[in-house]
From TrEMBL:
SMART domains: IG (SM00409), IGc2 (SM00408). Keywords: Disulfide bond, Glycoprotein, Immunoglobulin domain, Repeat, Signal. Residues 23-97, 106-186, 193-268 form the Ig-like domain. It comes from Oryzias latipes (Japanese rice fish). This is Ig-like domain-containing protein. It comes from the Eukaryota.
Length: 312
């Protein structure tokens, strides 16, 4: 009986770029008793013997002596997917062997949301569209701080976004064919200022008094300083500095008239926040709310003493 052997060999790479530039060889081995041999794709003849019937320049035969009759396809494309048949005719009967080519395409993200700036409390939808064979799975992560997976596929819905949800979002498409494809979207969440720290100053007469005000906000807050209702500016007596999220009011050569209440105002286009800070003489004391503990105690003592005196 005639000997007939057929097998498929393919080369695989980790990353394919369209058009898919791989070479697939379908190897068919026959012996010298075979009289006719042909390659077919579905019902279409590609080669009959050494005669090429296909017009596709990517397709050719690989023969080594009289024993190998292999079909080679260069720059394989998804359209090449399908059934291929090696058919031989012997003196006794025809024989065929068939292989089905499945073309895999790595996941590739072809569309992703642009970076976005949104006010706190608004709803946000991020999109990520990908192609590949088999169909890729899409996952989302907020990279900072935890990078934990988020519930979302092609579309990630964030209802009532909060400031702690701002950051860099990663969309990843994976179908286990090659290295997953990743794209990134930066989400900026805008919110009004919130003064997180306001620092009083206990300063002797003649020394430099320093009042500080720190605020968080997006966009970054702008600062203003007031004494009573009067806005303060840079002069020889006062100097205002802004260092990132902190504003510093410096009062040179403090006098008795400088002691008292000052107001820090942090503002952006979404709103403003005010805080009172105090410049006070050493020894008068302040509680954490900015009230004069010692002065208030002395005042209450005087009131009580006067009340007892007149009652008597």
């Amino acid at each position: 009986s005639s000997r007939f052997l057929f097998f498929l060999a393919m080369q695989r790479v980790m990353k394919m770029i369209e058009p898919i530039s791989l070479i697939f060889s379908y190897r068919c081995y026959v012996d010298d008793k075979v009289s006719k041999v042909a390659w077919l794709n579905r019902s279409n003849i590609i080669f009959a013997g050494q005669d090429k019937w296909s017009l596709d320049p990517r397709v050719d035969l690989v023969t080594k002596g009289q024993l190998e009759y292999s079909l080679r396809i260069q720059k394989v494309d998804v359209y090449d997917e399908g059934s291929y048949t090696c058919s031989i005719q012997t003196k006794q009967q025809p024989k065929t062997s068939q292989v089905y080519l499945i073309v895999q395409v790595p996941a590739s993200i072809y569309k992703v949301s642009e970076d976005i700036s949104v006010n706190e409390g608004r709803n946000v939808t991020l999109s990520c569209l990908a192609s590949g064979r088999p169909e890729p799975t899409i996952t989302w992560r907020l990279l900072d701080p935890s990078a934990e997976p988020l519930d979302g596929e092609e579309y990630l819905d964030i209802l009532g976004i909060m400031r702690n949800q701002a950051g860099r979002y990663e969309c990843r498409a994976n179908n286990d064919v090659a290295t997953p494809d990743s794209k990134y979207v930066t989400v900026v969440v805008n919110y009004p200022p919130s003064i997180t720290k306001a620092t009083d100053s206990e300063t002797p007469v003649g020394r430099l008094g320093t009042l500080q005000c720190e605020a968080v906000a997006v966009p970054t807050a702008e600062f203003e300083w007031y004494r009573d209702e009067k806005r303060l500016f840079n002069t020889q007596a006062t100097n205002i500095q802004i260092l990132d999220k902190t504003s510093i009011l410096m009062i040179a050569n403090v006098t008795e008239e400088d002691y008292g209440n000052y107001t820090c105002v942090a503002s952006n286009r979404l709103g403003e926040h005010r805080a009172n800070v105090f410049l006070y003489r050493p020894g008068t004391g302040r509680d954490i709310n900015g009230s004069a503990c010692v002065s208030q105690s002395l005042w209450l003592l005087l009131v009580c003493s006067a009340f007892v005196f007149f009652k008597c």
